[in-house]
Amino acid sequence: MTEPHLPPIRVEKALALLPELEALTPLRALLVSISRPDERKLWASSGPYLTLGKRGVDLDELRRRMPQAFHRIAEHIQELFKAYADALDSQQRGDAPGVVAALLRAGHLEEEGGRLTQARAWYEVALHVAEQLQDRRPEVEALRALGYVRLALGEYAEGARHFQRSLALAEGEFDQAGATAASEGLGEAALAQGQWAGTHAWYSRGLRLADAAQDAPRAGRLERQLGVLARKQHDLAAAGDYLRRARERFESAGPPDEMARVLNEQGRLDAQLGRYDAASAAYREALAWVQRAPRDAGLELSIRVNLAALDLEAGRLLEAEAELRRAEEVAIAANLIRHLAQIYTLMGRLRGAQGDETGFVFFEQAIELAKALERSVATEAQVYFAYGQFHSKLGQQEEARAYLERARELFDSLGEAVERDRADAELRRSSA
Amino acid sequence: MSLTPAHPPVSAATPRKEDVPRLRILVVAGEGGSAGGVMQNLRQWADDGQLEVDAAPDLPRAVRQLAGRRWDVVVAVLGEHPDDDLSWWVDSLRATPGGPRLIAAVQAPSMGLVLRAEKSGVLDLLSLPLRREELVRALDRLRSATGEAAIPLPAVEAHAVGPYALVGQSAAMLEVYKLLARVAGSPATVLVQGESGTGKEVVARTIHVNGPHAAGAFVAVNCAAIPENLLESELFGHEKGAFTGAITRKIGRFEQAGSGTLFLDEIADMSLALQAKILRAVQEREIERVGGSETIPIDVRLIAATNRDLKEAIKQGRFREDLYYRLAVVTIRLPTLAERGDDLFLLTAHFVGQFARRYGKQIEAISDRALELLRNHAWVGNVRELRNVIERAVIVATDRTIRAEQLPEELRGEEPALGDRPRGGLLTLAEAEARHIARVLSHTNGQIGAAAEILGIHRNTLTRKMKEYGL
Q1: Which of A288, A361, A403 comes nearest B60 by C-beta?
Q2: Minimum Cα–Cα distance from B458: chain A residue
Q3: What is the pTM of this model?
Q4: Domains of chain A
Q5: Among A135, A236, A257, B29, fewest CB within 10 Å belongs to which?
Q6: C-beta separation of B301 from B250 below 8 A
Q7: What share of chain A has pLDDT > 70, as a percent?
Q8: Full set of structural domains in chain B with CATH
């Protein structure tokens, strides 16, 4: 005789009982990652509209997985404490660069877990120690780490400032690798702020330095980034040349994840050129390279989302939906909520393309995720923008303008000039 | 419009044998491994001229080669993580032109891997080192598949309702047609009951276009799709500023329907509070927008649908009895696809025709093997699932016949392909147990508690068995 089995509890209801406490973040992540769609709903007419909130969590499974989650948390804390103890050990032995290295390691551990503000705190302590040293290389490294985490936090100007300082120090020390990395970081900061000329200058400088140092992986990465920039500037021929060269550099012995990134970008370029079959082939090969690389759910999701967007653009709606559902599974299992908001936005667009008003549920879920779980204004702005377009497509111009206005406000508050201009253009179209 | 079915009889099938082509095989090495040994074996075994063999060093390069020309079979050597490798292979081949079949080769495959391979539609999972007779058996199975006989599809006259249609001449559907003919002309509220995908919305539309509200709009609301906190404003509308996010005034679905029909699908998913508001709207024939004070009269015909047992829901206190009796003035129960006999063939023909027109293809037949797979499938999603399967098959069809290889992996996995072991298809007790556990787990979507309950064992026992069989 077995105990009666209770039906799974809906994620939206489970999350409603979980207070917004930092300490509970791993539990929230576990809850999301083990959620499953209700099988009875898969073929129901509401099945196509299933979102994270309506998935179910099996309490037995939650309880069973808890020890694994505790183990992972304990392991992470143990590593952090160990890094700190190593820093103290180096301090006692008068090895200041060792102190910096140990603190940076702690920051990297936090960054890998997606805890960016915590990572920034470790890097700031590392920088403070490094600033006291005669040898400037630890400072170059700390500044670089801080620069990247600032970019990830959307603090572009601060990130650029750290890379500038890092570059100046590296050049002073004749540290070519440090100077190359700092140039690359400056290029990324400029790219994020839509400063195309600056981006080109920094990436090109980084590429020259990498070539001089015969650093093929970094040179390949910079070629790819130059390709991204050229595509954004609509110089598609140049983008193609950069990507071809990047691919040649990685083809023989490059890391598989870099090859996947180049092919992902190649897919976007082909899509922009209207070469849907070529784009699809590039994305599929990119996915095959991801399989050979160390697990990187973020990269896999980026490719799958691009592939789905391509199918959507090409009117292959069935394929787009299937790919988005696969991406949703990957995002949920890896707890990548930012991607989930992006996936639901695309699902909403897909429904809009079918003239299906009920598609609004996807935008509502994406907004909720952006606000409640990811707390990202940038993501929220992107969702509002697409939501506005959705209403516009359905002929609901008043609603369209309201959502586009909201997107415009948010882009403006973030200093995202390019996106704000896009919202302005869409508003003009909607009012015409 | 007449609601009497008028379908042509299903014509007798005349199978047409086709030539057996040479098989083109791509051999791919596993992670860090070499395809050399497998290649050498295949080249030796390909002496009869029936095989053309080439190799790729890894999955990415194989994907590139597969995009370049048509292949029949991929023999993939799985690496140290065979489960992951298998998933990637299935995913990669899903969108490959020509749909090559996968033969996976691995050192000492676990029972779990065999079952996953079966479920994914893998042609065969072989142990390394490869044995000629096992490979030949797998390829023979593929060859026999290429010799599928074509069964012509009949032209089906459907009772079209816009893009929707009622198709079928089974006894169960004839009863539905009779009831529809009686109820459509009256303004009575109707409750449509039936499992997911049985066509409840199609029936609701049929009632609408044949009823006194046909001149008005048909507005459908899926109560389960819309988050609970938004459903009220979706149904009744809201005034600007009524709540955070109410950035404009919204006209609800009751008002949108005007003097037409409002179809409330999956009504059992509605909260009790909202059920009370629906009851009031039905009784008083008036509504109020959320945040508004104006009373708005309504003149809609209401049709509700559910896939649940509402009487059971009433007993459990999850559905209002008074609302049930308001909605179920007339109840129409729709049969499952399994209860509709050879309607499956007519529906297949109808959907093939519909999607062939949509995708600009000319398809006139289905192979005997494909039809057999369709007939053997369990169709949990009923007609909706069938429609979905046929749409995908039409998209990937390369000639005038829908073939088994164009059906989803899940359906192809239901063939006794991998079960065809040297012992003449007989399973050991452990194999049978592992298969049954896997089937139940699949049914419960991996939920161990629910699976243990079905199997009648404690969840700890199930967990132990899952570990033992590598599930």
Answers
A1: A288
A2: A2
A3: 0.83
A4: 66-208 (1.25.40.10)
A5: A135
A6: no
A7: 98
A8: 23-146 (3.40.50.2300), 171-333 (3.40.50.300), 429-469 (1.10.10)
